[in-house]
Amino acid sequence: MHAEITRLTGLPRRLSAPGRVLEVLKRRFAGARMASPRQFEGEMIHYQRGRFAIVGDLQSTSRMEFWRKSNAQERVQLIQQIATEAPDFLAIVGDLVFRGSSATHWAGFDQLATPLCHARVPILPLLGNHDYGIRRRPALAHFFRRFPHLGGRHWFSRIYGPLGLVFLDSNMGRLPAAQWREQIGWYRHELQRFEQMAEILGVLVLLHHPPYTNSSLTPDDRVVQRAFVPPFEEARKTLLMVAGHVHSYERFARAGKTFLVTGGGGPRIKLATGRRRRHTDDCFGGPPVRGFHFLMLTPLPTRLEIEMRGLHQPGGVFDTLDRFALPWASSTM
User: Fold this and answer.
1) Average pLDDT value for residue range 162-175
2) Which of 53, 70, 52 minimizes the C-alpha distance to 61?
3) Per residue in 240-283, pLDDT tens?
4) How far apart are CA 203 and CA 165, in angstroms?
5) Most buried among 83, 127, 141, 250, using CB within 10 Å?
6) Residue at 131 is within a domain
7) Domain contains 125
């Protein structure tokens, strides 16, 4: 009788404690599925303030990574600082979320990136390994739904003032072989196209996996070394290859080119030291554990200036921890 009255009057049934927890979880997941994904600007980037930002690995610390300190506060501070400085656009070198196939994780990114929308900072992202998630198809649907200006393209280029920008998908294992070969051909063609454009003074290549790193967890990426580094080193105008993936900051200068690792948003990792260090030519003299950070890049008449803006805790203050300049191919310092 009581159960019948409950159904007729619409009064909520009493649930056991486990039942209440399950009901809350159902509502949360239902809300994540029903929420409309945010669509971010990025179709057009304009040379207005004369500077742009790069950040990598904004994914949250997973509960499975119980040994790592959470980056929940720091990733918010990074985005808020970038929005405050209001660059002409923000490039994200992969790993926007921890699991790309999760609607809940993407809803979290939407919330994280809200200050960028309010500041009208366009976003140019590329795919990291986490963005592919466990299930490739729903992961890519989440990604491209938020960035419709990419038109479903895994690789693309933009022009910003005197700079040519090349964005690549370095996740070879997640791309069909034919698509991977198509990207390699496009990449070589695009570098050659920028070589022939008189207004382009320098070229940047952005991807997720670093060809060189002293990470104690991640090796050098041999695929990137074979597929993307040789054309980069052969081209006259290429200045800088920027990667994420490793949650640290490293700067290598080789064959007249610069290679940066800037996984500034992810939970911190320790770089190898002593005999375990693979590369002794890191130009940045920081400690093995390097803080949360982003890059600010400014094209000037004779050079490109790059600043690494690091976060100091406690206090949430940002300071320039590394600064260097790269001359244009046709000029001298």
Assistant:
1) 97
2) 70
3) 999 999 999 999 999 999 999 999 999 888 999 988 999 999 99
4) 6
5) 127
6) yes
7) yes
How many other C-beta atoms are found inside a 10 Å radius of the C-beta of residue 148? 12
Q: 205 vs 10, 47, 151, 243, CA distance in Å? A: 60, 19, 20, 9
CB-hemisphere CA count at 13 Å for 303? 9
Phi, psi of 292 (to 5 degrees): -65, 145
pTM above 0.70, yes or no: yes
Contact 238, 255 (CB under 8 A): no
Based on C-alpha coordinates, what's the Rg of the chain? 22
The DSSP H or E segment spanning 134 is none
Strand 163-167 and strand 202-206: the pairing is parallel
Say if residue 23's pLDDT is above 80: no
Does the residue 22 lie in any domain? no
Tell me if 252 is assigned to some domain. Answer: yes
Residue whose entry in the numeric block shows the structure tokens 């304009």: 46
Q: Among 25-29, 50-54, 204-208, which stretch is predicted with the lowest mean pLDDT?
A: 25-29
Structure tokens at 243: 């990667």
